[in-house]
Amino acid sequence: MKIDKLDKQILEYLVKDARKPFTEIAKDLLVSPGTIHVRVKKMEQMGIIKSTSISVDYEKLGFGFIAYIGLYTSRSSTSPQIIDALGSVPEVTVAHLATGKYGIFCKIRCRDASHAKDVIFRINDIEGVENTESMISLEESINSNTGLLKLIIDDGQ
After folding, report:
1. Domain boundaries of the chain, sorted by first residue
2. For the segment 57-95, what is each residue's pLDDT rounded down to a tens digit?
3. Which of 34, 66, 73, 83 has the fewest CB atoms lying closer than 10 Å?
């Protein structure tokens, strides 16, 4: 998969604001809006751009309590079933298969500590989960891909 400098510049704009109109990007990059459209479609077909999304402030919606849960699993062969079960827990927003101490590591968003306790108990009840360990997030200080994208662009990858 090869992308050029223009593709990378387009990505830089879209990572900062996925809703930025192609006409504005085109004006800034001195190309036609059609060129931007074609390039974005090409990167979608290549799988580089997976989707566009909005950023929601969950704290303002009453779900500002974040915790990370490490799951000790009975066997790694049960991980796919555990991941499927985690997918049915709406408060689980991210789940990773992991190496090291935990078989699975996930992020939950809840209303408060009491709600998180209930969610953790539900996770503990999933077949194949032996135990969990939780860490409460005091503040999400960084949630950005712009630095990584800048590294990729500057490295000439």
Report:
1. 5-53, 65-137
2. 999 999 999 999 999 998 878 899 999 999 999 999 999
3. 34
Determine the 3-state secondary structure of 62 from DSSP.
coil
| pTM for this entry | 0.79
Interhelix angle 5-16/33-46, nearest 10 degrees: 90
Q: pLDDT at residue 1 above 70?
A: no
Instruction: Give me the amino acid identity at 50.
Output: K
Asked if the 5-53 domain carries CATH number 1.20.1250.20, the reply is: no
Structure-token pair, residue 73: 């699993």
C-alpha R_g of the chain: 20
Tell me the two tokens of residue 90. Answer: 């709406």
Q: Residues of 8-24 as b/e, b for ≥16 C-beta within 10 angstroms?
A: bbbbbbbeeeeeeebee
Q: What six digits make up the tokens of 91?
A: 């408060």
Q: Give the class (CATH, top level) of 65-137.
A: alpha beta
